[in-house]
């Protein structure tokens, strides 16, 4: 009995100690699990803040980005980006130092009258309405030439040659005989005979006129009563001899050319305008002509005709400009430069360097805030010198990057937004070349590895700012 008590009491003590230890262990484990769950729930609900421009910056409280100074936005794990955050991802922010290093400058889009200047080359040509040929009215021999050299000036009222023609002599004799017959028959009591004399004179006179005899020559023939052996030939207009064909002593037939005459007091300039610009040319527009032969001298003409065909080799359309030529300064076949100013009216204008042409789109970088830019699709019109007409997509007063646009676009490419070349962030190209929304992207998980920024002077950013 005594032995049983000695064994039982220690056994009971051991059981009590084991029960107490087990209970303490269970209580401790339950408390630890509860703390772990609370910590997990706190971790899951913890709000973090990131930079839309530099998503690798993660902070646990609101503030500004240590790189670009932008206000941090909320970043909750597992949440989708809001529309505002998606829009912010398309922006590019540059610090003042970056803007200076990248030579980024911005200008304001303005509404102003725009004139398009079309420059083209041209060639001086003869005015075809002021050209003529001097021809032989009768067959015969050229007895005398009053003009012997090309380039000589001839007047409309002065003869240029004399021709001996047997046909002309016989026609003059017939005319003199008709005049005598009319004098003899005009006193006849028979009216038909008197009228017949008038008919003979009229017929002979008409033949001489057809042979090129002028009225004053007919008057001289009637006065002298003797036929002229030589017939003077006159030019139909005053001008310059551009070709001399006849020689003294040469026999010619009726209609053979003797000289080519051109009036150079007015000339044509045939200007070649490229096919993407000729639609701006209208009949009656003023054209300024300059030549290397006369530096500082400007000739003024007007568009007289636009040719209805295009040269397939040069892809140009010829435009005829009529221009006065006082002093005969403009010579045929001379090369000149032509300039046409076309008013386009008032419209929104930006520098040409502000527009990025990707082939399918035209993009400008609009400065939303100092140092922050966003890409904007625009529709452009005509180019006028260093300015570009904006038809839609931009408002007057908005500032655009006039230089450094491609560097801003490169920054957007590195950021993963795509920039002006690839389209807006969160967008992808469809089969028609347009844009359509892509799947939402979580902030900080854009699928790219951004380059680590250079540390600021003064320790503005530490390793604790980045989520590695």
From TrEMBL:
GO cellular component: membrane; outer membrane-bounded periplasmic space
Listed Pfam families: 3HB_CusB, Beta-barrel_RND_2, BSH_CusB, CzcB_C, HMBD
Family recorded in the similarity comment: Belongs to the membrane fusion protein (MFP) (TC 8.A.1) family.
Domain CusB-like three alpha-helical bundle, chain residue ranges per copy: 196-227
Domain CzcB-like C-terminal circularly permuted SH3-like: 348-408
GO biological process, one term: copper ion export
The name this protein goes by in its record: Efflux transporter, RND family, MFP subunit
Annotated ranges, domain Heavy metal binding: 49-75
Limits of the CusB-like beta-barrel domain: 266-340
Keyword annotations from UniProtKB, A to Z: Ion transport, Signal, Transport
Gene3D superfamilies hit by this protein: 2.40.30.170, 2.40.420.20, 6.10.140.730
Protein origin, superkingdom: Bacteria
Region (Disordered): 411-468
Organism: Geotalea uraniireducens (strain Rf4)
Entry GO MF terms: transition metal ion binding; transmembrane transporter activity
Location of the CusB-like barrel-sandwich hybrid domain: 132-262
Membrane-spanning ranges: none
